[in-house]
Amino acid sequence: MSTIKTTMRGPSNLHDFAALAQSVMDPQVWDTYAQGSEDERTLRANERAWGDVWLRPRTLVDVTRCDTSTTALGAPLAFPAMIAPMSLQALVHAEAERATTRAASDAGVMMIASTLSSRSLEEIAAAATGCAQPAPLWFQLYLYPDAAFNEELLHRVERAGYRALMLTVDAPYIGNRERDRRNQFTPPPAVSFGNFAAAPQVNWLTRGQRLPLTWDVIAWLRARTALPIVLKGILAAEDAQRAVEAGVDGIAVSNHGGRQLDGALPTRYALPEVVAAVDGRCEVYVDGGIRRGVDILRALALGARAVLIGRPVIWGLAADGEDGVRAVLRILRDELTLALRLAGHTTVATVDDRLIARIPPIGDRVDDESAVRRTRAASEDAPCDE
Ligand SMILES: Cc1cc2nc3c(=O)[nH]c(=O)nc-3n(C[C@H](O)[C@H](O)[C@H](O)COP(=O)(O)O)c2cc1C
Question: What CATH number corresponds to the domain at position 39?
């Protein structure tokens, strides 16, 4: 039974969930999730940049019926959201990725399991199949300097029923995450990588060493699996073009939530050039700083098929386990439904760039943090009508 209620006093949006999670999390664990790399410019800019997409709502449309459903590579989504792959969720809750997967199933969204998850990919698949309506599953792939391990991993992913591989391409080395170093953070011994249970002590794993990847990896994967391939971590049109030529099925525009190259552009600004380069030849998703349903609407208007939600899922998990993740997803879906209606749309399929105002960025002038805070303070005193 949930202990958290999304009422006037409980978390009513994802910002509230962040505050609640921080109040219950070990500060070092909070930092390891919250942090970006170096000066955290990309981390901060990701979230703020969505505020620079100004919308042109249409009016006098009957929006009583509103359908948020869509698909990702054919898999049904109750609304255009997927749970981003995030490592070691046992750091915040004992049920870890199993809880996240059950909440995703309940909400009708995709669960993307990380290679570095704390529960094995088989346990995550079992958590889904135990649900009345199992979440579709994708597997986020890292490859290692051990061909036998990689091939066996691919076989396991196929056997467990995952529908696609999401190959992360923006992390040949781990970004410079200074909060972890300052905290001298290492996961407690009880928290380990579920997919490496048979080989927890191998050198390449303990040194964080990965297989150096080049474009040849697509052909290598194609020769070993029939699963669709999605590249995660593309920010440049040239790479998007090359990915399409290599025959990928999807691209996730991502800067790893600001955890890799600090200074990499916010995903809101990378999305249009990737969408233009892809020109409809594969699906495009985006993540980084999506904190409101209207941010999902903005991403769709810029050409994304769906978004990935990262840290807010962890906040829900930390605050209230499976119920917390479920509440986070419900808030996002409710906000998206309302935003669609207020924008004059009754389905996500009709959303396109006509919804976007063609004006130069004005966010830094009118949407700075202090303005947001003033608005929040004012709205607390406002009458409840309007
Ligand atoms: C704690 C943490 C762990 C992550 N682990 C992975 C991972 O194992 N593989 C991966 O491709 N991305 C990983 N990511 C990146 C997310 O998939 C996603 O790109 C990012 O969190 C999205 O930004 P958001 O947190 O602002 O929503 C991780 C992110 C966080 C915060």
Answer: 3.20.20.70
